[in-house]
Amino acid sequence: MPTIVISSLETARNVLKIESQALEKLANNLPEDFTRLINAIINCKGRVVVAGVGKSGHIGRKISATLASTGTPSYFVHATEASHGDMGMIVEGDICLLISNSGETSEMHNIVAHTRRFLIPIAAISSNSDSTLMRAADFALELPDAAEACTIGMAPTTSTTMTLALGDALAVSLMRERNFNTENFKIFHPGGNLGSQMKRIKDLMHVGDKIPQVTPETSMQDALIEMTSKGFGIAVLIKARKITGIISDGDLRRHMHHLMDKTAGDIASNDPVVISEDAFAADALRIMNNCKISVLVVADQENHPQGILHIHDLLRAGAI
């Protein structure tokens, strides 16, 4: 018989299809205890203690980290280490989230006994509804029946993907219940690219004499001098201390015919895109990308000019 050769790409596509189908099945069959658990965590005075072993432990660490970074205090305890002193991290007022696909992981037994002794609620994620862990749980989060995506059907693949997704669903649902917003997110993410994107426009913009300003009556010769000297490639039209338009390189190209015979008001574009000084760097980057521009004028609610922001300012701040 001829050998059937399956390419790596075919294998990869098959894995993704199997796991995506499992996620769709999970979405359509969320555990009945999910909402009850959300309410319990919202009213929890302590923290969500996540525990697992092996691949479930790796997933548990990520779930705990996501919870903690999105407004739900949480930390991870390795089930084996808990039996050797770390059990003291789990105290009254906490809620435990225990992860075991089989529900029979022996290392979990001591944690379960500890929680029962001190009346600490347990939420369990498992594929086995009749397991020891699920029978002990106050909140049973059962994963739907779905085959592992690995070629021998044994390595945790589909099950860990569903567990991780369920953890994300839990974290995002809690964010919504807590009204966790961008300002809260900034507090927990001061470093790296995310922290840079959370910087305020007022901390990055150029102000005062650095803003290239002209009036509608300014001659184009003087307007070009202002644009060149300030180095942003634009000029902001100001009348009665309010922004009325903007001159960009595009405006110059569209009015090249007899350009020097015109005033700034003759060629400026009306209703320029502006941004508030209290907006975030991520907001500015999104606007620049959507509008295909490299400079933003910063204005207050009365449309008074407050500053100017160039895409290079975002680059220097690490927001890109």
Describe it.
This protein is α/β, with parallel strands linked by helices and 320 residues long. It has 2 domains: 173 residues, Glucose-6-phosphate isomerase like protein, domain 1 (Rossmann fold), CATH 3.40.50; 116 residues, CBS-domain, CATH 3.10.580. Helices cover 42% and strands 16% of the residues. It is built from 14 helices and 12 strands. A 5-stranded parallel β-sheet has the order 2-1-3-4-5. Strands 6-7-8-9 form a 4-stranded mixed β-sheet. α1 packs across α7, α2 packs across α7 and α3 runs parallel beside α7. The radius of gyration is 29 Å and the shape is elongated. The two termini are 56 Å apart.
Q: How would you classify the helix and strand content by structural class? A: alpha/beta
Helix content: 40-55%
For this structure, the CATH topology of the largest domain is Rossmann fold
Q: How many discrete structural domains? A: 2
> Hey, roughly how much beta strand do the residues contain?
15-25%
Residue stretches low in confidence (pLDDT < 50, at least 5 long) are none
Mean pLDDT: 90
Please render the helix and strand layout as text.
Elements: H1 8-28, H2 34-42, E1 48-52, H3 55-69, E2 74-78, H4 79-82, E3 95-99, H5 109-117, E4 122-126, H6 132-136, E5 139-142, H7 158-178, H8 182-188, H9 192-197, E6 213-214, H10 220-230, E7 235-239, E8 242-247, H11 249-254, H12 264-267, E9 269-270, E10 274-275, H13 281-291, E11 295-299, E12 305-310, H14 311-316
Parallel strand pairs: 1-2, 1-3, 3-4, 4-5, 6-7, 10-11
Antiparallel strand pairs: 7-8, 8-9, 11-12
